[in-house]
Amino acid sequence: MVFKRLLGALGVGGPSVDTVLATTQVQPGGVLAGEVRLKGGDVDSEIEYVALGLVTRVESEVGDGEHAGTAEFFQTRVAGPFSLRKGEQQNIPFQFAVPWETPITEIQGRPMRGSAVGVRTELAIAKAVDKGDLDPVAIVPLPSQDQVLQAFSRLGFHFKSADFEAGQLFGVDQRLPFFQEIEFYPPGQYAGQVNEVELTFVANPEGLEVILEADKRGGMFQSGHDSFGRFQVTHDQALRIDWTAEIGRWLDGLAGRHGHSAGPAAHGQAHYGEGHYGGPHHEHDHHGHGHHRGGPGLGAVAAAGAAGVVGGLVAAEVADEIGDAFEGEDEGGGDW
């Protein structure tokens, strides 16, 4: 993938830049490589630096509504300072590691509606900074993430949309200032009880946190409410878990006659490790003035030996204090 831009900020006849990616597909934590190709303009130029950034579109709550804007969540300088002579061609090879929390944008070879990540090249000359056009890059799931997504498909979920929400997830070691919500229509047998299910991944080099949120339908005289489920496992453990069974049990708990929303860990059965869960809520306004969606803690997970990382699926019904805003989402869904 290539983008070419005459640097308008530097005037007609200034340098031009092409950024060429060696691959247009990478996993979170993977390496993105390529080269930046510069060509001198009509006069010599003193380049202060060349930087590459990862950019996406993030939604945030502002007042009573939502605002979407472009956010750069990673940047690295790949060259500078140096001189670029009139008409001279310079190629700058680069490679950098993509953050582990980078949201995925493609599943099984198909782009996810509402998710996009691009590489942006920034060139600074004489205090003038030009931000080039975006070069799209596909972020494909890690094997551990793919196991969960395949389970959603096997269970009969249909992909609805995805978005990136500004804020921090309570109790999660989250490094980026936003998180991804992948939204699904539920399987047919739960359609009368659950509006939709949202899936969030928070990955790091050691493992993966999987957060599920179900928007439950309310009855004639009841408002709807949300239920949560969480897993925290190593990447290797994620490959061995029967996600279809675990998520299925969680869904069955949501649909229980007595309203209990509990997975196996809520009944004292720890799986794949040991640890403790805190109650989840979203802090949509990362400046600290946002609304919170919270509730009772998800409970402690019993010790299960020295396996190490927290496991087991639990859920807690909480009142939806702020309501999820899904305005602007494309209608309809389907398989990915």
Output the keywords.
single chain; 336 residues; mainly beta; 6-stranded antiparallel β-sheet; 5-stranded antiparallel β-sheet; 3 helices; 9% helix; disordered N terminus; disordered C terminus
* Class from secondary-structure proportions: mainly beta
Which outline best applies? elongated
* Mean of pLDDT: 74
Q: State the share of residues found in helices, binned by percent.
A: under 10%
Taking all Cα atoms into account, the compactness measure Rg is: 23 Å
Q: Which runs of at least 5 residues are low in confidence (pLDDT < 50)?
A: 1-10, 218-223, 257-335
Strands, count: 23
Major beta sheet, specifics?
6 strands, antiparallel
The percentage of residues in β strands lies in 35-45%
How far apart are the termini? Answer: 24 Å
